[in-house]
TrEMBL record:
This is Beta-ketoacyl-[acyl-carrier-protein] synthase III. Residues 92-171 form the Beta-ketoacyl-[acyl-carrier-protein] synthase III N-terminal domain. Its EC number is 2.3.1.180. The lineage of its organism: Bacteria, Pseudomonadati, Myxococcota, Polyangia, Polyangiales. It comes from Sandaracinus amylolyticus. Belongs to the thiolase-like superfamily. FabH family. CDD domains: KAS_III. The last Arg residue of the ACP-binding site is essential for the weak association between ACP/AcpP and FabH. Pfam families: ACP_syn_III, ACP_syn_III_C. Pathway: Lipid metabolism; fatty acid biosynthesis. GO terms for biological process: fatty acid biosynthetic process. GO terms for molecular function: 3-oxoacyl-[acyl-carrier-protein] synthase activity; beta-ketoacyl-acyl-carrier-protein synthase III activity. HAMAP family: FabH. It catalyses: malonyl-[ACP] + acetyl-CoA + H(+) = 3-oxobutanoyl-[ACP] + CO2 + CoA. The active site is at residues 98, 239, 269.
Length: 312
């Protein structure tokens, strides 16, 4: 665990600044030697236990991450081996940054609805501590490491399940949040290392504005598509990036902030992992109960964003 006080000794910041601007108080940092697939596999095992399924029941593994174990192969194939899934199931990664979980959930929903898969493992996982510049106070205070997972299966016909999903992107914001180095555009070299091109770069203000706007419109659209009125919605489990962004979304959508399940104070922004981690905590705590309606919404680098409404 790393607290805001711990960060005060690394960069020119204060606990007060971080809490007031973001709502974040502490974040988790993966152990040295721990890889993204290790955390993803642990989350996947717990999701299997909750779903009372065996790893061999899984037909497809989708890992949403922008911090894969390595560029090739996908993190999903490491997860496949680590959890003991069948050696012929589908396994692939989705790169949609903080919206990755919404993207993966939407894909899983479509495969299951089409009858092309029975049980899809959806993992959101991120080891952002490995790609954050720990000397840049404008980014390093925001992020944390984490993993969460769900299994998407055929509906039992009891009205519970995924009611709507939507995914979007606007590439005109591509440079507002990125890790520019290490890909084909700027292959790793001594020069890219020297210029710190392998770390997260962000225009925080630009992302903030587009996040409030697009999360609000996507949330409203998801509710309409699901046939759930804002007043009847039980919970919002949003991407946990910044409390002020969520205050803006609450105001614009008319869903009070008291119905937002929030845990960003303890984990910071864990990107694609934030929704499944929050969902898991909310369910284990008994906050989200069977039959309740839940809205997911997330926006991140790309910008890419997505939303979904489920009946738990
Ligand atoms: C990053 C963010 C918290 C910054 O808050 P802000 O109110 O926009 O602050 P600004 O960037 O305008 O910076 C205000 C001042 O605080 C300073 N500052 C930035 N980080 C700081 C820190 N950790 N501690 C202290 N001061 C800091 C800036 O240097 C700036 O100083 P200046 O006015 O002297 O130039 C906010 O923009 C944000 O949350 N954006 C969205 C980021 C996000 O969620 N990204 C992920 C999306 S998935």
């Amino acid at each position: 665990m790393m607290t805001n006080r711990d960060l005060e000794s690394r960069v020119d910041t204060t606990d007060q600044w971080i809490v007031e601007r973001t709502g974040i108080r502490e974040r988790r940092i993966a152990a040295e030697g721990e890889a993204t697939s290790d955390m993803a596999a642990e989350a996947a095992r717990r999701a299997l236990a909750s779903a009372e399924l065996d790893a061999r029941d899984i037909d497809m593994i989708i890992v949403a991450t922008v911090t894969p174990d390595m560029p090739l192969p996908s993190t999903a194939v490491f997860v496949q081996a680590k959890i003991g899934a069948r050696n012929d199931c589908a396994a692939f990664d989705i790169a949609a940054a903080c919206a990755g979980f919404c993207y993966a959930l939407s894909i899983a929903d479509k495969f299951v609805r089409a009858g092309a898969a029975k049980h899809v493992m959806v993992v959101g996982v991120e080891l952002l501590s490995r790609v954050v510049d720990w000397s840049d106070r404008s980014t390093c205070v925001l992020f944390g490491d984490g993993a969460g997972a769900v299994v998407v299966s055929e509906s039992r016909g009891d009205g519970r399940g995924i009611l709507s999903t939507a995914i979007h992107a606007d590439g005109s914001y591509a440079s507002a949040l990125r890790i520019p180095g290490g890909g084909s555009a700027e292959p790793a070299s001594a020069r890219t290392l020297e210029l710190k091109r392998h770390f997260v770069e962000m225009n925080g203000r630009e992302i903030f504005k587009v996040a409030v706007k697009n999360l609000s419109s996507a949330s409203a659209a998801a509710l309409t598509a699901a046939g759930v009125a804002a007043d009847d919605l039980d919970w919002v489990v949003p991407h946990q990036a910044n409390l002020r962004i969520l205050e803006g979304v609450a105001e614009r959508t008319g869903v009070p902030l008291t119905r937002f399940y929030l845990n960003l104070a303890r984990y910071g922004n864990t990107s694609s992992a934030s929704i499944p981690i929050a969902l898991d905590e909310a369910v284990r705590e008994g906050a989200i109960k069977a039959g309740q309606s839940v809205l997911f919404c997330a926006l991140g680098g790309g910008v890419a964003w997505g939303s979904a409404v489920i009946r738990w």
